[in-house]
Amino acid sequence: MTALTPQPFPADGYRKLSAKETMQRAQAMNSTMATDTQPKCSGQVHVGMFFDGTGNNKTADYDDLPPEKRKHSNIVKLFHAYPDAPDRGYIANYIPGVGTAFPEIGEKSTSAMGSAAAAGGAARIIWGLLQVVNAPYRYVTTAPLIPDKQAGDISNMQAWTADAENRKVLHHWQDQLKAALAGKKPHVEQINLSVFGFSRGAAEARVFCNWLMSVCKQENGGWTFAGIPLCITFLGIFDTVASVGAANLWGGNSVTGHQQWADNSLQIHPAIERCVHFVAGHEVRATFPLDSTRIKQQYPANTKEVVYPGSHSDLGGGYAPTALGLIPAPDDNLSIIPGMTMYHEAMKSGVPLIAWQKLPKNFKDDLTPTQATIAAFNTYAQDAKISSAAVEHMLEQHMALYLSYRFKYRNALPERMFYKRANKADRGYLQTTQNTIHFRLGELAVGDPNSPDFDPAIAAAQAKARAIAMAKATGIAFDEQDLKTQQLYKIAAAINIKKLTPAIEQLCEDYIHDSMAGFIGMATVWDRGIMNEEAFNSMGIMKFRHVFFGND
């Protein structure tokens, strides 16, 4: 099975359900939705879980900012589209990204360790699991069974314990829930979960589902939680990155970033009815390796993976207007297209999101891309001609086009519009990544990368042939496993300015953020060296993204 390429985005800005998809939604909702709104003696509970990405926070990115400066993620936008009416059985839970404030679990400010090593991820997952305990009780009584303070204390305490102990605690609370609901009306017929996540929040969402299913009981052809039938109807995730503990800074598999809560817990659980994973085609940071939903060479039957153009936050959202000289206003953001498409995928799967016609205008605007963005996205896809294939090969094709663009204008960076629009600090970060391109091509030691006639592919072929000949002459085996050299040859061979078209250049110029440059700007004083990855791994932007599969 292969990863997929996205469909062209509709020119009117709204991806409508087809007749077949409308029927699919009706079938998915048939067993979960009440036929009327009159009070009943029983009903179903619909729970939405929204795990935001590293550094993303609804309060800081949306609530506390004027509209023209907002930078909230697609997770916040989808959270806004989910109804929150516990008395009617609709409960939405938002979990801020690691590295940001989450007062409910005692994190009252930003955290460098949260950003760098995903500290606080386990507590967020456990807090989410406790809200599953709370949801049926809130539906019946309008109050939580586990108050916020107690839930926060449990989350922090259990974050450092073994999986078996966590399961024991969750079984205890299931018993408490069952006893608390005994004899009360309305009777809870079923719990229906929809789970969303971005970045490390996507990793949290995957672990959340696995940990939840590990404490459910399989019976009568389904699963129960506290004796109540439970169903995870949809898992919608954007560009999963774990990087828990030591990050994969040097590439390869020597350090995976799958420590602690991400250890052997990222595969998509077969009980999930449908999983959709959107992947960023232009993300390349070593500390942001992709955790694909593929297991070895196969995708689970309940999963599809789609590769979009753009860097990590061009997919999941989070870039502020004018960052790195791009998107002058929030509604110009490329991330709106995958955000709106995920809304569509969730609706198709029976997630009880607010109908498009009933969404408040400001929330609808958040999911409506501009005509210019739609045109740029569609014409890029048409010209790039990247077909469905293995996800790692699709990532290489997207990144090769971006690096070809940066190489084409290697001696004219100050003349590019994004550079002119960028502030002084961002210009410095962009120059750093441009210098990495120059330096790495110079390491081929074939010709002058600044020369108008320099061809990286030819230079790479000559450099590799020379290295093989030298190894043969000296009797030393040519080491093709040296990651730094291997990546240099591979990247240089992929650079081809003849593949560039005006449409491809426009998306690179106006919409795709250089996440490597932006990462340097996010650094604090103590971790600035780490954020400039080239200083550590000598590769920087000049490499392809590493991809992990299953529980690698």
UniProtKB/TrEMBL annotation:
Keywords: Plasmid. It comes from the Bacteria. It holds the Pfam family T6SS_Tle1-like_cat. Residues 50-214, 230-338 form the T6SS Phospholipase effector Tle1-like catalytic domain. The keyword Nucleotide-binding does not apply. PANTHER family: PTHR33840, TLE1 PHOSPHOLIPASE DOMAIN-CONTAINING PROTEIN (PTHR33840:SF1). This is T6SS Phospholipase effector Tle1-like catalytic domain-containing protein.
